[in-house]
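Notebook entry, structure prediction.
Reason for the run: the old model in the group folder had no record of what sequence produced it. Starting over properly, with the input documented here first.
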Amino acid sequence: MELFEARNVNKVFASTQALTDVSISVKEQSIFGLLGPNGAGKTTLIRIINQITAPDSGEIFLKGKRMNRADISHIGYLPEERGLYKKMKIGEQAIYLAQLKGMSHRDATKNLKLWFEKFDIMPWWNKKVEELSKGMQQKVQFITTVVHQPKLLIFDEPFSGFDPINANLLKKEILNLKKEGATIIFSTHNMGSVEELCDHIALINKSKKIEDGPTDEIRMKYKSNTFDIKYRGDFNKVDLALGTDYNIISHNESEKENTLKVQYLNGNSNNNLLSAIMPVAEVLSFEELIPSMNDVFIKAVEESNKN
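New structure, fully documented this time:
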């Protein structure tokens, strides 16, 4: 079942088209990657979901009902631009923000202290925000985003400024939140994180959605019939056997084994490629190269820009 849906959303700022007929559907208890180059329209869509601005046309829905201002209490939003009160004590500020989302002082204090212990920042409860490093401030803001257990979480570049250890901590907690029932919209330029976390992605470029689907299916869509092959044998014989129906991208020879990166052309298949090599070499491994989300992002945007 879909927790969130945007239907045919359009938004114009002055003479700039920020969103053009964008529709997305986010399933319950999933992680949805909202991707695109800078200025593509992602932040505008996120602001519309959070009721910060309104679409010029189109509709947005939460659990099948048209969203309104009251639905903000069911959303946790971690913006790319962080914002905490520098002179305020961390614990007091976290309680205040939790109360804005409808929590009682008692429940906010209890839940926040559990999260502070989990993130190893409890000793800083009575310190001022300005005394914290950027990374620790981001931990506090992440906690205040999730503490009220919202139905929908929106993370905009959540790993920005984190070292690898704390980035992994955050990834683990995001996956735990999903396991516990949260639905997450996740916007980032870190395509490695997209591969690790996202069940489904939508890619926006120049205000328009250009890709939408399960992450694995999108990657498969952009595969180029390229394989890594390890073999024992004479490369010259392999080269001759492959002929013009195959594009040898690279090869490397060593005493133990040779490696070959090759792409098949002219309507050939995996079986054709193996059948061409096996009479002249001993094939040790045969692996299709599926493009990374980084490769998909670049190729999809480049193709979109040509249109």
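Summary: The chain has two domains: 2-220, 224-288.
The old model has been moved to the deprecated folder.
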